[in-house]
Each structure stands twice: as structure tokens, then as C-alpha cells.
Amino acid sequence: MMFGIVLFGFFLKGVSADAVADVVLSCALVEEGVGGMGGGALFTRTPATLVLRDVAVGPDESLETLTPFVPPSIPDPELILFEAKASSPAIPNADVLLHADCNQQEVLCEISRYSPRGLQDAAGFFMVSLSVDGVDFSTALILQTSPVEQDRSTLVQNKLGLPLSRSGTLLTEVIFLVFSHIKSVSAPLKGQVLLNCGFRQQEVPLDPEVAVEWRLQHRGKGRKVLEMKTKLDDAEGSTAVEGERKGSSLDAARLVHEGDASMSLSGLQVEDEGTYICTVSVGSFHTQQVVQLHIRQPPHVSLSEGKRVSGSPQTLSCHCSKYYPLDVQMEWFSQAPTASEPEPFPNQGSLSSHRQHGDGTFSLSSHLSVPSSVPPGTRITCRVSHSALDAPLQVAVELQSPEI
């Protein structure tokens, strides 16, 4: 579980349309600790701070409330204070961090050590996971510490063993990041969806090749959906694609030129629902984003009625079919000829068992016994609520005079 972020302030570097600000975030440094009972690993969390430099401020941004961040007057080797630029490469939609505090949105931050594949000295690499609660903003940054001129007065951060700048910060640069503009998306059966994922790296590529892998994790099971490898110089014939799900695709040109690793899925089925993990690898570096896909299929609702015979109750049946997911609510209402508003029917009837179809959808019926004392002209309504519906569906019948 990540720690919340508190927005302390901003440092303005201009008041023009391309003004920038520095955002200060309270994070947690997460490290693996000593194994607990049963051999499971424990994790320790140490307070840390991340200063993102040069976050773009839009031309319509109110600048009066932005106050400068002031580093400690006396550098403290106990403090863990990371400093990184958010402009090269740019962090997409980083401006949402400017408003999170005012909008009372919790920002989640987690920093951990990072070990690039194949590199001997990995002491100066860190991964930062950032997301904003209730907002489609999520990114994972790879930071590399920058060289610091050292002399006898240079302080070393006690926990990390890395040299500090004159202001007491760990100077770093963002060398690679993977982001997503969508944390969760819903789509209907047989429909199409685009799962968003992208990456950025420094102007000088970390490696001439980029690889993207999409995996699906659901109910404890995982499988690879799509994998693509291609050259960043867009050389002809350099792209290799391995797709394990029919109807999955990724645009190689957009991947190379725009850093767009989004995957398209068509012909959606219930089994496509779950957690999708987008992993982007460039050279020794890789990180990922997670997107939730929910299948939502609205129900078809119909009403059938038995004959109304004098002195006997009449049976009404409301049928709710081919919906997903399982949860559905069925309610009965009645409105007498002289009433202005419907009211819940005293007896809410009986439900059948859920029936599951071959495509994974469900059906359910509700049966209502209407007493013979209910007068003709009364309107009986079946109302169905489901997560795939913007508003409840209603079907109704007006009671006729009984047959003699």
C-alpha cells in the first residue's frame, strides 16, 4: 500500500504561457526487509521527499497560490530528498499534481531501489511510482543519480550512501518512464477497447530496440496477450509480433514515433476481463503500468403475464437476460388508477436461480403474484438496475378486468 502525498508548494520560474513550477511530494522509500513468519518478505517504509522540477504551468493557471519550495537551511544527511526534472523527458499530464492538494485528491507515491538488467553498478538507480486517486494519472519513473562534485564538505546520505548536493538533495534525472492515461475502462461484449500505455526516454535513446509485452492477470491466472519488438530507427522488417489472442494489435509506427504502446482488443468476451499489465523495455531498463478492463453487458428485459381469472391471483414474470456481471436488482412497483406516483409493490415476488450462458452472461427472472383484489387499470412495473445501465430499465403492464 502506497503512502499519501502532501503538496507543500511550488517554485515559479516564469509567468508566461510556458511557465513552470516545482512540485514537492511526500513519498515513502520502500525497501525489502527481513523475512517474517512463513518466510514471506517484509517491507520497510521510510519517509522521503521528491521534488519534481519544471512541471509545466498552463497559461490559464492562477499563480497567486503557488508558493516557493525552500530546501532545508542546513543540509541534513538523515533526510531523503530526491530532486528530478519533470521536463526532459516530459511526464505526461504532470500538471494534475498541481491541483491534487486543492482538489483534496490523494496522490500516491512509492520510491524503491532499481536494478537495471546487466549493469554491474546499480547503486544510483531508483523507481518512482506515482498516481492520483480518482484521476486517470499513473506513471512509473526510472531515476538515475547525477554526478556531484565532491570535496571534504560533501555530505553523504546516511541510508543510501550517496553524495548530496550543496542544498542537501539527491540530484537525479529521469531517464525512462512508462505511463497510462486510463486506470480502468469498461467495454461491452463483442466490442472493441483501447488499453492505454506509453513511454518516454531521454533524447539520446537508451537502446536501439524497444519491446512491449501485454499480459492479462485474472483470478490468480496469468497469460501473455501480445508481445512486440521493434527498432527505434523504424528499419523495414525490424518488427516482430507475437500475439496469443486473436483480435489484439499494437501499432508499431506509433510505438516508434510517439512512444504509444497502447493495445487494441476487438471481439471482447467475458474471459478478456481482468488486470492488464503493460511492460515496456528499452535496453537495460523496463517498467510497467496496470489497466483494469471490466466487461459490462446490459440486460434485455421483458415482461410476460398469465391470464387474470376472477377470484384468483395473476402471475407476472419479469425476465432479465444476457447481462454481465452477475449483480442485478429487480423491483416491482404499482400505480393505482387514481395515484400520481408508483409505489413499491407490497410483495416483491420470488426470484429464479441465476442461469449462466455459454458466453459467460447471466439471466434471471422474477415472478410476482398479483392478488385479485388489485383493481383493473393498476399499472404494474418491473424495474431492473445493473452496472452496465446508465439508468434503470422498466417494463410495465396495465391490469385488465378478470375473465369470468
UniProtKB/TrEMBL annotation:
GO terms for biological process: antigen processing and presentation of endogenous peptide antigen via MHC class I. It comes from the Eukaryota. GO terms for cellular component: membrane. Residues 195-292, 299-398 form the Ig-like domain. Residues 363-376 have a biased composition (Low complexity). It comes from Stegastes partitus. Keywords: Immunoglobulin domain, Signal. Pfam families: C1-set, V-set. Residues 337-376 are annotated as: Disordered. This is Tapasin-related protein. Residues 1-17 form the signal peptide.
